[in-house]
Amino acid sequence: MNGENDSEKSRETGGVHEFWADPTSWQFSRVSGKLPAMRSIMVTGAAGFIGSNFVRLLVNRREAVKLLALDKLTYAGNLANIGDLLKSHPEQLAFARADICDAGEIERLWELHKITEVVHFAAESHVDRSILGSGPFVQTNVVGTQVLLDVAKANKVQKFLQVSTDEVYGTLPEDKPEEKFTEETPLQPNSPYSASKAAGDCLVRSYFHTFGLPVLTTRCSNNYGPYHFPEKLIPLFVTNLMEGKKVPLYGDGMNIRDWLYVEDHCEAIWTVLNKGRFGEVYNIGGNNEITNRKITETLIREMGRKWDDSVQYVKDRPGHDRRYAIDAGKIKRELGWEPKHRFDEAIKTTIQWYRDHQDWWRNIKSGEYLKYYQQQYAGR
Ligand code: NAD
Ligand code: TYD
Description:
Layout: H1 3-21, H2 23-31, E1 39-44, H3 49-60, E2 65-71, H4 83-88, E3 93-97, H5 103-112, E4 117-120, H6 127-132, H7 135-154, E5 159-165, H8 192-211, E6 215-220, E7 223-224, H9 233-242, E8 247-250, E9 256-258, E10 260-261, H10 262-275, E11 281-284, E12 289-291, H11 292-302, H12 307-310, E13 311-314, H13 329-335, H14 343-356, H15 358-364, H16 368-377
Parallel strand pairs: 1-2, 1-4, 2-3, 4-5, 5-6, 6-11, 7-10, 8-13
Antiparallel strand pairs: 9-12
The structure holds nicotinamide-adenine-dinucleotide (NAD) and thymidine-5'-diphosphate.
């Protein structure tokens, strides 16, 4: 079957799914005897930051889907992120500890849970760790993605959504604010992390063109919100400030990121999964460019601290991308998605979440984490 025919077929499948998600149509489809089979989605990396927020959104909204939360539980994966949901919704949500590189195990779980779709979050996700060692990044983000694609192909997956990042596009100049990443921007990854994500994206693209696999790719800007592992800028700085420690600001602090509340990202992924055109890439962003220095000022103010007592400028990250900014026009025009949360409000909600969940992050910031922190920041 060529890519074009497959694309047609998949658009039909997309229609059925939208139909199924609408309770009014569901009634109708029952009456007419055309009840589609239950969607069963494998969510890889579901115990991580964004994956767990995605599962939470779907379960809380009672979306008519079954979910298999699959995660290897690396240092970044935490079953506590979805523990309450596993208890409260056992009929809808199951968990499997598995490595996406393990083809036999993925195949077994696929059959057991009668998987129809994949939303692929699982990744090594931290740029600084990819500078310390790129091996795990190539293994999970490239080989793991290839393994998933092969199992998905063998089992005739109905939809495969690759969750990717704006970092695959490289960096933007700060003196040309009108320039933003579009879906046509060439891939120019600069860190081992972004290079491994770009390689994964290229494999996904190739399975569409070569095999007609019904794939979708999203590329999002920096997220913030609950359950964010405290090695990334916002949760690291918020928790350091709560601990009375200083925050390590890289270089001149003037690097720019485009910040998006995690729930908005999850909504965008759900929108693309349901309405997106196969083979297409959708950029997702907050239209919210902020320098690291400004983020730091905001956090310090919100936490009632003073700049001079709180900030430690440290040696810059090697190869540090200067500016990321997303043009999210395509997803708005074609699928009607746009962010709902404003940064000034959602950052307060986020800080409050870390105040209310001290056990969660204090548990993480111990043991192995302290060794990493020492290795990353000592003498910088
Ligand atoms: P995260 O590091 O918090 O979570 C990643 C999860 O994947 C963890 O639970 C980990 O245990 C799991 N995992 C890692 N290797 C695995 C393997 N081999 N098999 C199974 N599970 C494995 O990352 P995140 O911030 O939630 O990011 C999720 C996805 O979104 C990633 O693909 C990332 O590239 C992408 N993304 C993240 C951001 C962001 O700002 N955090 C922005 C855009 C895109
Ligand atoms: P990060 O949260 O690691 O996301 P990414 O590098 O994927 O964009 O970093 C966000 C920005 O914050 C980035 O410009 C690097 C900077 N940063 C610091 O200044 N200090 C830190 O300790 C960290 C982790 C990041």
